[in-house]
């Protein structure tokens, strides 16, 4: 009976979000309370479970995600992202322009949140497309594929960061695995797949005819731009590798402290405040205004995460996770494939990659200890599943359609299939690493 209640609750959650357009945070709260009552949790303890779930989820994430949003906004507003893109285009030349945009998207996509990154790179894509007289979809999709992969696979983006916390995975190792899987995934979903899209060439919107035309003298240097954008990755990789070789207790403790995800993001933000802000002539007030603006973009994401944490806690406190474990133990399906499939289903129904990832994690997390799989790989498996087949219920679908002036059919042929390729290739990469481990 408890399994029926969970299926009913998750189905109702999907209907509230996708059909009735209820705010995802409110939908999570309503479903958490309803599920708690139906699963037999004492009425007086339901709100305690909800509050504990929200607190546990956000407690370990707020610093990382907020600092990540601030860093990403500064990278965009300072011109660092444009500097990196301009250099990559010069480096690769016209013949390999797709690869230039793909690697640019991957680099700037690590610190930039998806919606911010999308709005930032689209004018750049059209600027390059108009300059070289090439189809915007053909040269732009590799860049958007990079943004999608970093959004679904790599910390400090909200969903993978939250999954790392839920599964008690290692943030640095997840990031390294994510880069290892993400690069070939982007190549297949970007430059390789887009070869079939050359015929999709609608007229460019007039608004982009003079896009990305910032004076070069106002941009930060290339070295500073790359260093500031990738500093979180550099610090996480350094500390993860160092801890494997250093045995001196005091040094190991210091590195572990510095490598804590929250400390990594704080250090990176402090460095960027100087390198991309004050050093570029911005006043401290201007930099702080950028940071304040960035938080507005992620406030609802944080609330959605808190709501997902509430539902997860209800599942744990009701004991239903044990029933699910018994049921799943009889299924002849690999745990990593199962996590991916659950995330896929929710993604297609709801549209939000973040909601899909967090909801799937809430189901899988209580079962993970008995699954004998690397939690870092489970993070990436669910992350890949959360990107499956973006369609009309996803805001990214409409952003892409309207910016690129496409029909719904053309959007499905390009955008939706690209996201599907990313999802499937991501799972393949996860399984390859899993079998290499064993």
From TrEMBL:
Task: Note the superkingdom of the native organism.
Answer: Bacteria
For membrane topology, the record states: Multi-pass membrane protein
Q: Which Pfam families match?
A: GntP_permease
The alphabetized UniProt keywords are: Cell membrane, Membrane, Transmembrane, Transmembrane helix, Transport
NCBIfam families in the cross-refs: gntP (TIGR00791)
The entry's family comment says: Belongs to the GntP permease family.
Name under which the protein is recorded:
Gluconate:H+ symporter
Q: Whose protein is this, by species?
A: Ohtaekwangia kribbensis
């Amino acid at each position: 009976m408890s399994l029926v209640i969970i299926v009913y609750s998750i189905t109702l959650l999907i209907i509230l979000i996708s059909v009735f357009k209820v705010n995802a945070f409110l939908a999570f709260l309503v479903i958490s309370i309803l599920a708690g009552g139906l699963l037999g949790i004492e009425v007086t303890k339901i709100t305690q479970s909800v509050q504990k779930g929200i607190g546990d989820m956000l407690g370990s994430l707020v610093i990382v995600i907020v600092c990540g949003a601030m860093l990403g906004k500064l990278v965009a507003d300072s011109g660092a992202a444009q500097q990196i893109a301009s250099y990559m285009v010069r480096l690769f030349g016209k013949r390999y322009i797709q690869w230039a945009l793909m690697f640019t998207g991957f680099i700037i996509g690590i610190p930039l949140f998806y919606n911010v990154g999308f709005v930032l790179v689209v004018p750049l894509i059209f600027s390059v497309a108009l300059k070289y007289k090439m189809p915007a979809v053909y040269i732009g999709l590799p860049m958007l594929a990079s943004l999608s992969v970093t959004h679904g696979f790599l910390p400090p983006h909200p969903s993978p960061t939250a999954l790392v916390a839920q599964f008690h995975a290692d943030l640095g190792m997840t990031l390294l695995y994510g880069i290892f899987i993400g690069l070939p995934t982007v190549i297949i979903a970007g430059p390789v797949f887009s070869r079939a899209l050359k015929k999709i060439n609608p007229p460019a919107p007039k608004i982009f005819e003079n896009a990305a035309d910032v004076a070069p003298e106002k941009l930060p240097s290339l070295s500073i731009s790359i260093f500031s954008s990738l500093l979180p990755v550099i610090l996480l990789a350094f500390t993860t590798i160092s801890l494997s070789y250093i045995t001196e207790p005091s040094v190991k403790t210091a590195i572990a402290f510095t490598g804590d995800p929250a400390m990594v993001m704080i250090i990176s933000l402090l460095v960027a405040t100087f390198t991309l802000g004050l050093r570029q002539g911005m006043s401290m007030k201007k930099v702080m205004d950028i940071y304040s603006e960035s938080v507005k973009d992620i406030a609802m994401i944080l609330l959605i995460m808190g709501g997902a944490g509430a539902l997860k806690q209800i599942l744990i406190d009701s004991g239903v996770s044990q029933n699910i474990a018994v049921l799943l133990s009889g299924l002849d399906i690999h745990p990593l494939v199962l996590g991916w499939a659950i995330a896929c289903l929710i993604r297609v129904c709801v549209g939000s990659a973040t909601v899909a990832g967090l909801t799937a994690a809430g189901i899988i997390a209580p079962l993970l200890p008995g699954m004998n799989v690397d939690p870092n790989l489970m993070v990436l498996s669910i992350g890949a599943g959360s990107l499956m087949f973006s369609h009309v219920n996803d805001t990214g679908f409409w952003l892409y359609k309207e910016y690129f002036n496409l029909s719904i059919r053309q959007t499905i042929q390009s955008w939706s299939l690209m996201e599907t390729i990313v999802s499937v290739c991501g799972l393949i990469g996860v399984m390859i690493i899993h079998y290499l481990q064993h």
